[in-house]
Write a structure and sequence with these properties.
This protein is an alpha/beta fold. It has four domains: about 210 residues, Rossmann fold; about 100 residues, Arc Repressor Mutant, subunit A (Orthogonal Bundle), CATH 1.10.10; about 375 residues, P-loop containing nucleotide triphosphate hydrolases (Rossmann fold, 3-Layer(aba) Sandwich), CATH 3.40.50; about 160 residues, PCRA, domain 4. The protein has a six-stranded parallel β-sheet with strand order 3-2-6-7-1-8, with helices on both faces. It is globular. It binds a DNA duplex through helix 5, helix 12, helix 29 and helix 38.
DNA sequence: TGGAGAGGAAGCTTT
DNA sequence: TTCCTCTCCA
């Protein structure tokens, strides 16, 4: 046996020893076969998946580059490879060769290399804004006969695509979102427009728009997100370009849609002759956590997969269920399962908690989102007030159904200075300033990015009028169809007066000339960067400086620097893009040559530095603030931040303490699901709830509110149906049981591995009395404080002396600035708020008899919601962490105000 | 061309 | 309530 084999065996043995019997069964299932791993929450899914991949390489000797692993997000793919790298560091396996990524990124890679077989060459990705733009163009440019055609269609064909009201004038009353949704649905089912057109039953209106939209995308050399999957599927089912693949693993299988299922089959088809290397698939998922039906995910794929392979093989899919839960306590699991059992037609699950101690979930009903937010703060502050800090802020999260629900909570967190951050990585790449600089990078990287050209041509404002822009737009569309002429060149011709349709004033001509000059000069710089794509040995510092030079040129000459100069946050965010660009390392995105393939089949990657960078962020490489290291850096004072997230965003994560507010009819289940969705939509809402509650490890807090809303708005009448049969049962409690006795408190400390305080040092009974007694007055607006000082007032001084009493307030006061409120929080607050915020007082309470300082939710231009997503946490104390402050648009889209009003600024 | 003001709609999850 | 869109006017 060679030494490398011995090392492999040792690694494998270690790895298997670390698994429970069911996990081991799954991991060691034969490579040649079909395996479904049903992994409930907290059952070690990621561990099993990584171990499985390692097993396939170590034991079954499948080369890394013959394995595909699809994950739900890019982040998950990165985590997987990182874990594997650690796991396999002592072996000769090159983990980076594994084809790991989202379906979208893998498909785009395949199309880039083999797309020319379908005539797809040098295509770019159309992000949502691009595809919106294209569809709007389609609707704006309808000819007379088109309008007549549409007008002649029966109502039943058009009604579902019409805007509700009001927008009659625009787009002939059509709602582009509704059209896009349905087109996306067709694409997700693998239906191309020409197929749809010829289907016996089809909607003529949809068919019309689908064809127009697709034609336009093609003419613009663009693929939307769905196209990446759709055309890749066409490609791989027509040409055997992926026949080198020996095993396909799919994570989060419950969230795959039809086209992804088809892609899985195609990828797994495998070797042309060797049967051992065909149809080898491992999927991991949990039907109970399927919460992406709106993206056409279908949990039925589990059954479809079984049936598909049953037709081809005598032996059925091997199914292994993981039932040992290492995350949550029994009460949390029992509660979650009880909720899920309300769903008809579901395979019962019995997860077994591996944790001995358990505390009942806490539930409370309130009368407004603001009260609910206060209730959450109240609970957090009591947890933080326990001696010896069993919990840190970073151990807690608040999970909401809809992003806008975070508003009331954020407001209260700001007021009570509870540090928090939002989990929503995508937001950064959505910010106005980030999008703007990326658009400039796009027009420099590509000659032909019409949509980006149109967005940059008058942003920042250069004094071009609406009519001028419209005439340029029309001309560009005509001249650049199917890449006949480049956008850049056409613009040049417009400036040179070669088209009668566009008349420019001398001032406009001058403006456009310098716009084009900026592009051509930037391109000269860009070309010089291309040497850095191939040659690794080049001086990294020089590379960074050259890249930064190009970036600065673009930022300054585009006028964006001037545009964002007044807002330090915007400027900081742009600088973050610069940092990312400078640090960007090009990773070869090659695929192994397929059996029977020639080198000439493979397209060479001719993209320039900027283009590659832009594609790398195209599928949203999300950088999320790292919560795990908050106690490191030798600084125990910093206790991180409470995580605020949508339930969807929390998937795969866990916290010792989880809050799930908004358990009301209309919120969870969401109103749209109840009104238009039918029982299946409600089931999906219930699964959302399930995902949320099963994020909790030790303590679970849930709340609801019923409220008459304001002005008839957003009336919430009832507590969520999901709680109907659970309220008032022994499954839940209204106050935290862990505080009730010394015995339970001791268990709480033990479960989080902290030293139990002595009875003498902590007046538990008193604490408990205050905890129960002060809640109502606090929620109704009375002052409240929980700290050493207030305790002293009410109990014997001796008791309190010398103990490690802590509190949220004290914790915060150790730092002289608000943590996590966004670096520029003070700027965001109205002037009237500033004096309240500046001096850090020992109490995080409002003075008795006075209402909390008026915090008005930010309305952008000047003020922002303190969403702090800070990838660059300041490690030095000299600089503030650059805060990504989202722009108005993304924030407002995500957080419309629906009854979650800011606390009133007026006294009643 | 672009800012101010009026009027009306509104809600969700994301590659 | 908030925000977007449209219209009007400087």
């Amino acid at each position: 046996m060679s030494s490398s084999n011995a090392a492999d065996d040792a690694v494998l043995a270690n790895l298997l020893a670390d698994l429970n019997p069911n996990q081991r069964l799954a991991v060691t299932s034969p490579a040649n076969g079909r395996l479904q791993i049903i992994a409930g929450p907290g059952t070690g899914k990621t561990k099993v998946l990584t171990s499985r991949v390692a097993y396939l390489m170590l034991k079954e000797k499948i080369p890394a580059h013959h394995i595909i692993v699809t994950t739900f997000t890019k982040k998950a793919a990165n985590e997987l490879t990182e874990r594997l790298e650690t796991l396999l560091k002592d072996t000769a396996i090159d983990v980076s060769k594994i084809l790991a990524g989202t379906f979208h990124s893998i498909c785009y890679r395949v199309l880039m290399i083999y797309g020319k077989k379908l005539g797809i060459e040098n295509y770019n990705i159309a992000d949502d804004r691009d595809s919106d733009h294209i569809l709007k163009e389609v609707l704006s440019n309808l000819g007379g006969s088109d309008v007549d055609f549409l007008a002649g269609l029966p109502d039943e064909d058009t009604i579902q695509f019409k805007a509700n009201q009001g927008t009659e004038k625009k787009y002939y009353g059509y709602d582009t979102k509704k059209i896009k949704r349905q087109i996306s649905k067709l694409k997700s089912s693998g239906i191309k427009y020409d197929t749809y057109e010829n289907m016996a039953i089809h909607n003529k209106c949809l068919s019309f728009f689908y064809k127009r939209y697709q034609t336009k995308l093609q003419q613009s050399c663009l693929l939307d997100f769905d196209d990446c999957l759709l055309y890749c599927n066409v490609l791989v089912s027509t040409y055997p370009v992926m026949n080198f693949v020996e095993h396909v693993l799919v994570d989060e299988f419950q969230d795959t849609n039809e086209i992804q299922l088809q892609l899985m089959y195609q990828f797994a088809r495998g070797h042309p002759t060797n049967k051992q290397m065909q149809d080898n698939v491992t999927i991991v998922g949990d039907p109970d956590q399927s919460i992406y039906a709106f993206r056409d995910a279908q949990a039925i794929n589990f059954e479809k997969m079984s049936e598909h392979y049953a037709r081809r093989y005598p032996t059925p899919c091997n199914i292994v269920s993981l039932t040992d839960n290492y995350r949550s306590t029994t009460d949390i699991l029992v509660f979650s399962e009880t909720v899920m059992r309300q769903q008809q037609k579901r395979i019962l699950k019995s997860l077994k908690s591996q944790i001995d101690t358990t505390f009942k979930p806490v539930y409370y009903n309130l009368t407004s989102p603001e009260e609910e937010a206060k209730w959450i703060c109240y609970q957090i502050e009591h947890l933080m007030a326990l001696p010896n800090s069993p919990f840190r802020f970073t151990d807690m999260s608040v999970l909401v159904r809809a992003a806008y629900q975070t508003r009331a909570i954020e407001n209260e967190f700001v007021r009570r200075r509870i540090p928090y951050f939002m989990i929503r990585g995508k937001a950064f790449w959505d910010r106005k300033e980030v999008v703007a600089i990326l658009d400039y990078m796009r027009i420099i990287a590509h000659d032909n990015d019409r949509v980006a050209f149109l967005r940059t041509i008058n942003y920042p404002k250069r004094g071009l009028g609406e009519k001028t822009i419209a005439s340029i737009e029309a001309l560009l569309e005509r001249e650049t169809i199917s890449g006949r002429e480049s956008v850049y060149k056409t613009l040049q011709q417009i400036v040179d007066n070669e088209f009668k349709e566009v008349k420019l004033t001398s001032k406009t001509r001058q403006t456009l000339t310098s716009f084009l000059k900026m592009i051509s000069e930037a391109r000269v710089k860009l070309n010089e960067l291309n040497i850095y794509l191939k040659n690794d040995s080049i001086d990294q510092d020089r590379k960074a400086s050259d890249v930064a030079d190009l970036f600065k040129f673009i930022y300054s000459r585009s006028g964006l620097e001037h545009e964002f100069a007044n807002d330090p946050n915007q400027d900081l965010n742009v600088k973050e893009v610069e940092k990312q660009l400078c640090e960007y390392k090009y990773k070869e995105e090659e695929l192994p040559l397929f059996h029977g393939g020639q080198e000439s089949d493979v397209a060479e990657d001719s993209r320039n530095y900027l283009a590659r960078f832009i594609h790398s962020v195209g599928f949203y490489e999300t950088e999320e603030e790292d919560r795990s290291h908050s106690e490191e850096n030798g600084n125990k004072k910093y206790r991180g931040k409470v995580a605020l997230s949508t339930i969807h965003g929390s998937k795969g994560l866990e916290w010792p303490v989880v809050f799930v507010p908004g358990l009301s009819e209309g919120l969870l289940p969401a109103r749209f699901a109840v009104n238009n969705g039918g029982p299946e939509a409600v089931d999906e809402e219930r699964r959302c709830f399930y995902v949320a509650t099963t994020r909790a490890k030790t303590l679970l807090y849930m709340s609801s509110y019923t409220s008459l809303g304001s002005g008839g708005w957003n009336v919430i009448e009832n507590v969520s149906r999901f709680l109907e049969r659970i309220r008032g049962t022994e499954h839940i409690t209204d106050f935290q049981d862990a505080f009730k006795s010394w015995d339970s408190l001791r268990k709480l400390y033990e479960v989080v591995n902290k030293e139990v305080p002595t009875k003498e040092s902590f007046p538990l009974q008193h604490f408990n009395k205050l905890y129960e007694g002060r809640l109502t007055p606090f929620i109704k607006g009375e002052s409240f404080s929980i700290n050493e000082e207030s305790f002293r007032k009410s109990v014997n001084d001796n008791v309190m002396s010398g103990i490690g009493f802590t509190s949220a307030a004290m914790e915060l006061n150790k730092k002289r600035r608000p943590i996590g409120l966004g670096a520029n929080i003070k700027k965001q607050l109205k002037p009237s708020m500033a004096p309240q915020m500046k001096p850090f007082r020992p109490l995080i309470t409002t003075p008795v008899g006075q209402r909390a300082p008026p915090y008005r939710p930010p309305s952008l231009k000047s003020n922002r919601a303190p969403v702090s997503i800070t990838p660059a946490i300041s490690s030095s104390n000299t600089n503030r962490a650059p805060a990504y402050i989202p722009d108005r648009k993304s924030s407002s889209q995500r957080r419309p105000n629906l009854g979650n009003r800011a606390p009133s600024t007026h006294q009643k």
